[in-house]
Design brief:
11% helix, globular, 1 helix, 225 residues, mainly beta, Porin
Length: 225
Amino acid sequence: MKNKTSKIGLIALIIAFMLPNVVQSQDSDFGNWLIYIGNKKLNDKWNIHNEVQYRNYNAVGDLEQLLLRTGLGYTFNDNKNNILLGYGYILSENYIGDTDDKFSVNEHRIYQQFTSKQSVGKVKLSHRYRFEQRFVESDFRMRFRYFLGLNIPLKTNEDGKKDIYLSAYNEIFLNTESSVFDRNRVYGGLGYKFNKDIRIEAGYMNQFFENSGRDQFNIITFINF
């Protein structure tokens, strides 16, 4: 049974990495984000967050944005709450109008966040409040983000652990300037937990702005070490 479960996870992983290539072969504008999220525990209280996101306009190979993020966090209240101070570097490749030409935008970002976890029956909830100070080329901006995530277990393996789950979240971005609404992201996906330290998700995300929107296929890997 254990080998069968491992095979299911491997098949799911292969399908997840094949899907973006299928989308690309159809010459679609459906974007793709490849995301790695890592967490290094220094001790029972302190942790280091590290993150890489490779975002594409199409499936793969047309860079929209490269995001590198790290931070130092402190956990309290029986591992239910975490505060974190972090830094991010973002390289954006923006198209010029309707042409095929691009121009690069560099952003350095300092952020503070508070994360709280809770359970409602079998459903796990995660609340994240993040405040960002953004240095976009010569411009300075500030933004607030609220993230609500849900994790719903679907299948139990022979060890009594949940290894397949549904994942969903909504995140809203608010500026401190006159145009308050920045964007909103809605995501739903299927995840597989290999063990207590490694899991992977594949899902659909819709990101909409004040006057436009965009669809994404996301592949997310989570690693604790």
